Amino acid sequence: MAVSRRPKLLSPQEAESFRYSWVVLVATFMLRVIVFGQLYSLGVLYMHWLEEFRRPRGETAWVASIATGTTLMMGPFSTIIYDRFSLRSVIIVSAFISSLGVAFSYFARSIMFLTISLGLVSGVAGGIVNFGAVLALEKYFYKNRPLAMGIGSAGTGIGGMIFGMLQEFLIDKYSWRDSMLIMGAVQLNMIVCGALIIEPTEENLRENFFKRTVTPLVKSATNEDVDLCYPQIEAGAFIDDSKDSLKKIDDDDDEKMLAENENNGDRQLARKRSFTSSSYKEVLRNPIFLCLFACDFLSWMVQYVPYVHIPERANKLGFENNAFLVSIMGLSSAMGKAFFGILCTYIRNKSFDVYTSTQFLFALTVLISPLCVKIWSLTLFSVAFGFFSGNYCLMMIIPSDLLGEHNFSISYGILLAGEGIGVYLGPPLIGWLSEVCHSYGTSLLAAGVILLSSAISMLPIYCIKSRRVTRVVAIKHNNNNNRQDGGV
Prior knowledge:
Elements: H1 12-16, H2 20-40, H3 42-53, H4 57-73, H5 75-84, H6 87-103, H7 111-140, H8 145-173, H9 176-187, H10 189-196, H11 202-207, H12 231-234, H13 243-251, H14 253-260, H15 267-274, H16 277-284, H17 287-301, H18 305-316, H19 324-346, H20 351-367, H21 375-389, H22 398-403, H23 408-437, H24 440-456, H25 460-487
Helix pairs in contact: 2-7, 2-8, 2-10, 3-4, 4-7, 4-23, 5-7, 5-23, 6-7, 6-9, 6-10, 7-8, 8-9, 8-19, 17-23, 17-24, 18-24, 19-21, 20-21, 20-24, 23-24
């Protein structure tokens, strides 16, 4: 009896050759505008909640903190969900649930109600939508993936600016409760965006009017021009000196086919392979991934600190109307993400180097921020901080480059969870430090030290990669010699 096969998923190189990939990019951009715009605009509601519910500031602040942390921590769970269901169906259902969570906040009678409706319900659903947006770009782009990730990630900053102003307008015009109903309706637009994200199969893409373009595929790397950042070298498991590890590199042809050979078109098999428990263990035991996790976790511990402390620092220095500093950081962040995405599209094999170097500049910017005591210097700091924070878009490319495309969903999902934990722990820790030292400058200095530690944690990867490439080249050389000797 004949068994019907599921349509084959196209490789990212093949899917990118269809113009529909740019439709997917626009849809994912709008998804992130709405998801993160809603999150960032919660700060506008903070003072209104304090006035109405009359609860402590720390308790009230948990609403935004839990919403942001939950959105990020949904990464590992989203990996499992998207493995079992299509991108379109999951995004549509999650978008509807997120909309309900926001709209039902209209009926809130306590901070606990808001924590559940906005922090948990909308946070969980928004996290699943956000992960789907990133996963869609990973499926549809390869050569232009840095550009796509940069543009898609820029939606977070743009959303923060637009929704912040929109939320403030709605509250002034109506009330914060009415604004929740309207924002819930706005969230329904994610359903339209999700409907545009289809699985990249030949059948799906042929049925729409976006025909295939003449985009040449990226040539495969050879032994002579292999770059340290490309997945052709990095896709396998961590290489050590044991015989088992050498045997894995030499004999596991099926593994190499799934991770490296994109020409067979059988992406479903690679996807199912990638979500086994052994794959989770492989990723978690990989020292390169551990370095990435440490860097990302430490970075996100302090990502939001300047957004809170810089306006307060400006107020302490006697500068009024300092809310524009937050808008400058958001706009600069969006510009930075677009810039780094475009840059690494043209120097595709240098994404890791660009991220590491800019992370050091990012840390240096925050370290010298206590010296900024004039409004012009605070403005300059806001521009620099936002711009260098835009290097985060490269963290959506580096896991695929260093660990292989077949491990992208797992690795990026775990990284998102680490970011969520960092968001939970970082702001309270830095806030406690500022209260103890009675200085916002001290808290910014501590944030700079943490960012510097984040950048330093990336340096061991250079040593690991160099050793790995040396081992791979030596093994291939030995294999070629053995074949030649066997043919004599």
